[in-house]
Design goal:
seven-stranded mixed sheet; about 150 residues; binds coenzyme A; Aminopeptidase
């Protein structure tokens, strides 16, 4: 796994550089600031920061809220490292499943999530705007515990 670390307040500028490459709607600096206090944000331990993930936890269910890798650093395993971290963090937090939403047109993210074992749960029509549907995906951690 690539080296990751928890976010610190001084990372906000680097995270906003990454945010340019995140799916719309864009998150503002104040959204990211709030995110890092209310949720669990982890970044690549690199200078500059090349990847970020935000994870949430509600009633035993973990959620991947945001994951972004700088375009020139993609296909180098950062996405997989962030998702492996999410898996471990969710298990250690007592979650039984991880949910996320992704646009049906986001081939890279769908490829990553399927490679990590996520399966489709439902479709939310026009979720991101007219004609831009979201697929809700889930990874059951009980299933992965049985396998390992
Ligand atoms: C989705 C994203 C995070 C993937 O990050 P990444 O660092 O390139 O992913 P990895 O290199 O770890 O790839 C792991 C696996 O995911 C799949 N994958 C990654 N990019 C893919 C692509 N463009 N097409 C199909 N599958 C892809 C592959 O199975 C890949 O394994 P492989 O390289 O051995 O074939 C990155 O493309 C990104 O930041 N996209 C913009 C932001 C975004 O859409 N975030 C998700 C919604 S919030």
């Amino acid at each position: 796994m690539n080296n990751l670390r928890e976010v610190v307040p001084g990372d906000l500028g680097s995270i906003m550089e990454l945010e340019q490459y995140a799916p719309l709607p864009a998150w503002s600096p104040s959204s990211w600031l709030e995110e890092s206090t209310k949720h669990h944000v982890v970044v690549a331990d690199t200078q500059p920061i090349v990847a970020v993930i935000s994870l949430g936890l509600v009633s035993g269910t973990a959620e991947v809220r945001r994951v972004v890798v700088l375009p020139e650093h993609r296909r180098q395993g950062w996405g997989r490292s962030l998702m492996e971290y999410a898996h471990l963090w969710a298990e250690n937090s007592g979650a039984t499943e991880i949910f996320l939403e992704v646009s049906t047109g986001n081939e890279a993210a769908l490829g990553l999530y399927r490679a990590m074992g996520f399966h489709d749960v439902s479709l939310r029509r026009d979720y991101y705007g007219p004609g831009d549907d979201a697929v809700v995906m889930c990874l059951s951690l009980d299933d992965t515990r049985e396998v390992s």
